[in-house]
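Lab notebook, bench 4. The sequencing result for the construct came back, and we need a structural model before the next group meeting so we can plan mutations. Quick request posted to the team channel:

Model the 3D structure of this chain.
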Amino acid sequence: MEVKPGVRDFLWMGAGAAVLLVVLLVMQSYQSGRSPAQRLELKARRVDLVERMRYSLAAASEAEKSAVLAVTDQDSQAFADQASAATAEVERLRKALGELLASGASQKEKELLARFSEVFTDFQRVDRDLLALAVKNTNLKAFALAFGPAAQASQEMDSALSRFLPRHAKSPQKMLLLAARAQAAALRLETRLAPHIAEESDQKMDAMEALMESDDREVRASLDGLDAQPELRGDPDLATVRSSYARFSELRVQILALSRENTNVRSLAISLNQKRKVMSVCQDALHALQQEIAGEPAPATPFNPRQLSSEPQTAR
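Done. Here's the predicted structure in token form:
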């Protein structure tokens, strides 16, 4: 005679399977050396570390941009120090997270951290190069010289020539032409400084400097021609022109040297291109790691037999 299981038998079979599953989960948890509560705490710590890494990475990027855009050496250095400190904090957190993952994380999480570590090395390299340029502010210093003392020297020269021409209106045409040529060439030379300072290409700067040298030769040749005129010996305006242009020429050498370093232009270009790209890759890697940790199944809580015995059992 065949005996068919009743409803009570199915209930007990289901309860037994559930108890067995819970026991297996608990055994697995304790075999790993951690209770479910400890595993939950470990997961929360890992998620928190990744979140803090993302925040510090963003803080480093913002401070870097401020260092690039700051207009004084003091401000640039202060922001650069903030950026370096935030980057160092990311590195500290990365090492702490690596220690946690080494003692109980999935292989995927370890691979994702390794991927971040790889791109973060690029981030650090780009950041060091960028900040080293940003704090020098050579383009800003060149602009300050060009629109400050160099512009003043050029204005003094132009004013002296403007006085010179009317006073010698009845002089030979050749002499007036020399003065006008010197004035025009000096003004052209001055206007070429700002584009040179803003230029990123060395090749284009070479071309600009070639034009400046041509202008400089014309100024000097014209002034030499005026000096050769006997009636102009001891002329006070011509003496002012000579001294003003000499001062302008010394400043031009300094301006071009600072402009050639191009630290503001180069740091801005790095910030907008290389740094932006590597920053995006770092954040994507951290986001993927954070999602992987957050997606771990929640550990089971220890089984309490009293809970089962206290539940009412009904049979149909």
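Residues 36-135+266-302 form a domain with the Four Helix Bundle (Hemerythrin (Met), subunit A) fold (CATH 1.20.120.660).
Will bring this to the meeting.
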